[in-house]
Design a protein that fits this description.
Nucleotidyltransferase, domain 5; 23% strand; 16 strands; 5-stranded mixed beta sheet; 3 domains; alpha/beta; globular; binds zinc ion; Arc Repressor Mutant, subunit A
């Protein structure tokens, strides 16, 4: 191996270690990596002076001998932008290398106005985020998450049922307008990448993030890697069958799919059909007696106030979700399932329900499964999109 290649590998290893430890002394880096102290000093100096990714913090304690210089990632003026291009909202954030928010913006997608309006909104949103940085700051890149089958190499959205898009070249549209590197991936897979990169509390390598909104999908992580699969389509968790007797037809054409039976869309539709039920008085009040006003969120609010019909609906969808999660966890032996998306924003009410039912569908070794809200809440996809860029930064590819 040539010296340049070796240096790059060592540099990546040191950068990764500094990120993992938040702060670490040069002597500790030498100890952990097995590199010699002069090599560590030289590489750290490069990372500080040339790459501008690391900074000296001061001098740390040392057990005997000379005190050692402590370093950390340089968050100041090193920023990344993440965008969640969703069917209801476009959300974006600008964060530092530690995923601390510098700014965030959310605007309605207004999907009915069509493709060029959506592109215009994304550009406006990026410009608003960028306008809040100082002149010294560097933006390393922009990550974008979209619901659907996204080719992360070409930036082409091959299909997106939410938007009704096929073979849309998002990259071409955006890169002509904004001179920064762009990276793209599927929004749910990005939720998983975000947990992998920036969830500092639970250092886990086998988990899934389930996105329960108007559709249902999963981002699956095995051995610390996000699974893509042969066709890049892994994680279509919404299309496993959870009720073979069901007559409900999914948009994929099959019957009994989890997405058809437990999505936000299903919650609203069940509630709309029950609006005249005598036990739905709170629901009726919350939607002002107008069927079309009913959303999954209104049903959740009614359930929390004790509306019996709404409670019954959430109970039913929680049952289906647990059946689906049981299948997933028994297959993969995941340690944690994070739930994100609109339906998961209903807090304790929803998580208590799911937690009370999960054990029915889990084999004994998997009973330890934890079910938690996605760490970054409604910014889960944006932070995942940030991780897409962060991965490149940490690999020194930008
Ligand atoms: Zn389906």
């Amino acid at each position: 191996m040539d010296a340049g290649r070796m240096n790059l590998i060592n540099k990546r290893a040191i950068l990764k270690l500094i990120k993992e430890r938040s702060e670490i002394s040069r002597s500790a880096i030498a100890k952990v990596t097995g590199m010699t102290p002069p090599t560590v000093t030289r590489i750290v100096d490069e990372l500080v002076q040339n790459d501008n990714l690391v900074e000296y913090v001061g001098v740390g304690d040392s057990s005997g001998g000379r005190p050692s210089v402590v370093v950390r990632l340089k968050n100041e003026n090193n920023y990344i932008i993440g965008i969640d291009l969703g069917a209801t909202y476009i959300r974006g954030c600008m964060v530092d290398l530690n995923a601390s928010f510098i700014s965030d913006v959310q605007i309605p997608t207004e999907i009915e106005k069509g493709f060029s309006s959506i592109i215009e909104k994304v550009i406006q949103l990026i410009n608003r985020l960028i306008s809040r940085k100082g002149t010294e700051a560097k933006i390393w890149g922009i990550g974008i998450g979209v619901a659907g089958l996204v080719n992360s190499d070409t930036g082409i959205i091959e299909t997106s049922p939410d938007f009704g898009w096929t073979n849309i070249n998002l990259r071409k549209e955006l890169e002509n307008k904004i001179a920064l590197p762009f990276f793209y991936d599927n929004s749910t897979r990005l939720m998983a990448l975000g947990e992998l990169y920036f969830n500092n509390k639970t250092k886990i390598s086998d988990f899934a993030v389930i996105n329960v909104g108007y559709g249902i999908a999963a981002g699956i992580v095995i051995d610390g890697k996000v699974v893509k699969g042969h066709a890049g389509f892994a994680g279509e968790f919404g299309h496993i069958s959870v009720d073979t007797c069901s007559d409900v037809i999914c948009k994929c054409g099959m019957k009994g799919c989890l997405e058809a039976l437990a999505s936000g869309h299903r919650i609203a539709s069940l509630a709309k059909n029950s609006i005249t039920n005598k036990n739905a008085s709170i629901l009726r009040r919350f939607c002002e007696n107008i069927q079309d006003n009913i959303t999954a969120e209104i049903v959740a609010n009614a359930a929390k106030e004790g509306d019996l019909v709404s409670i019954q609906i959430y109970d039913e969808i929680a049952e289906y979700l647990c059946r689906g999660m049981g299948t997933l966890v028994n297959l993969l032996s995941s340690e944690v399932i994070f739930i994100g998306g609109g339906v998961a924003l209903n807090g304790d009410f929803f998580f208590d329900l799911v937690n009370s039912k999960k054990s029915k569908y889990l084999l004994t070794p998997n009973l330890k499964l934890q079910i938690l809200p996605a760490t970054f809440g409604e910014q889960a996809t944006s932070i995942g999109a940030v991780s897409l860029v962060m991965e490149k930064v940490m690999n020194l590819e930008l």
